[in-house]
What we know:
Number of strands: 9
Largest sheet: 5 strands, antiparallel
Structural class: mainly beta
CATH architecture: Sandwich
Low-confidence stretches: 122-129
Mean pLDDT: 90
Number of helices: 0
CATH topology: Jelly Rolls
Distance between the termini: 18 Å
Radius of gyration: 16 Å
CATH class: Mainly Beta
Shape: globular
Amino acid sequence: MGTYPFVNFKMTPTLNIGSTPTLIFGNDLYTCLIDSVFISNVTDNLMLVTVYIAREQTIGTETDFIFSNQIALPPSERIDVLQGSTLTVEAADLLYAYSDSSSNLFNTFVSYRELTELTASFGSQKKYI
């Protein structure tokens, strides 16, 4: 269990993402509420950005769930993929992003709340007898 205030407000930035899927968020210990996923085009090109969540639904097998497919991102602009919504991710879920071309680079800023009052993931739970 965490200590007061039981919720940690955090932000994870990731630089220069191209056409290779890149991890932009992951938390092995706690369920988190993602409040925003800003993507920021750092080029003068129109680009298409895809964001997906990887989850191990069956032990040893990861499944990729497309969250936003080919979002049009104008040159030098930024958008919030969540558009004012909140996304709940479980411990060990991973959030990835990539663009349509290796020359189309963007940055991400994931703002989230780490819920430390909830029981930690199965791998870190302590059992008392």
